[in-house]
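HUMAN: Would you supply a protein with fold tokens?

ASSISTANT:
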Amino acid sequence: MEPQTDSTTSTSSTSTSSESWVEMSSTDDECSFSMNEETECKEYSDSDLDFVLVENHHVMETRTSYTTEYYEPDELLSIIKKDNHRNEHRWNQMIMELRTSEARTLQHDVWHKVKIPIKNRVAVQKLRYLIRKGISDHKRKKMWLIITGAQENMKNLKLHDLYEEKLHQIFGEKIPRRIEKPPLFGGELKYEPHYLTIMGEDACKRILCIIGMEYPDINFCPFMPDLVNVFLHYLSEENTYYIIHTIFSRAKEEEYIHIFLSLKEFSAFVKTFNDIVRMQLPKIWKRLQSLGIDCSPFAEKWFRHLFVDYLPYPTMLHLLDSFLSEGVKILYRVGLALLKLHNREIMHCQDASQIVNLLHQLSSQDFNETKLMKTAFQFHLSRKHYNRYHRKTKTKLNDLISPCDVYYRPKVIGVTNSFPDYVWETIYEWLPPRHRIQDPSRIFNSEVSGYSFKNFLKSLSGYSPTLVVLRSGEGNVFGLYMDSPWNAKGNPFIGSTESYLFTLLPDVEHFRWKEGQSENFLYVDQDGFKMGVDEINIGLHIKEDWCGSSETCEIFENKPLNGTTTSFTITTIEAFIFN
């Protein structure tokens, strides 16, 4: 049955009465954006960015109100081609605090003289030992693109404007400024350890959204958010996408294991570290065993973030250089080096609590970066031994299944006036997984169809699931999700345990059925409808004249949906189905 969608086209609301819905934006105060390496830069500036000096004397950006909820085409093009998204003030301050070493200066001089091969395999082979000493900061952009194969991939596939096309495929005709719920691949999106502008943070979310929809079969790669954030310190948004796209594509080739594609793969890698420590550092391993300490918990924290926030940022970048050229074994090597360099402290620990505290602090202590990396590459880890231990561990994890939620970002431009479009991201988190790959379509709008309750029921007849959104005279927005057709025939109550109540303003929250409670979900007749009917209260009661009430009911354990005012009058009614 084709939905009878309302024919009006409405612009998205750009302001609401709730501070939580105030649109936010940012750009660099005065930034130059390069369209590509060959063309000249053009100026782009925006007065919507404020700088605030906070207590730690870092200059931090704060967002002010967006003038529009979506990017203009020319504005978006400038942003995605901007050369990098590094907050130069914070970055330079960090470098000054660490003090540039003589070794780093020497490294810069050496790389300045190096002729870099343009072919991926040639560059990795010829410059392997130089890469191990760390790529000079001014060469990282070029080298990362080459050693990952992204540079060749971009030329061979003629990727001109591909990223912009991907954005429109994911988000629709217009690209939203605000993204609330990007896919995280089992990781965390933490910006504090990085040195990005707010514009860079937004770019990271867009890239994660595209990767999430482009590779639905890759559902666990916990360091992906950190990897995207790090790349954005040196690369444009579109080049960051190309490098991630290339890494993911090549990750499915057996000889290129730079990332993990499943929870099972990652867990096996972490647990194999125990065997590596036993083989490479037998005395330390015996000491840990005598105190009942397993290496996996602290190793898992290191590996899932690529040591971000555990090593000084320049040291983590040094590690990443080798990670991109040689693969995941560098994580083992650095982990082993940290243990070896702190051998004395480990041996002096008297109980499990002391050693746990020490192991969690090892990589945050002051140390010599050159010494750490030199020690790391002293460990010989043959592929033969690694594969043997990895297969052995993996066999023990046969029953471990990765989370498999499919990421989909609904195309919702102007589909409602009741709340900002980005709130749909939260609504889609509440939907059953099978409906998260569908777009919402409005089938009833009181501003067009009027306030006839009979017409409201007629519009919903035969459809499931449906989402009903109501706005009260007090300005609160709330509603219900119903997974059954709105028919008043047969069983007086319709719906199942997937049905729920929700609020969108002033709070964004949903209330599901509480196990063991009555299943009196939705009762509908010509006089109105009731959702959540227990022996005393009704979660949501709407009469045919659109006067209503909401109380706490045992079925959903919801708070009153209209806040402190139990009774109310509905001013706006919208109903949606999912195509």
Summary: The longest strand covers residues 567-578.
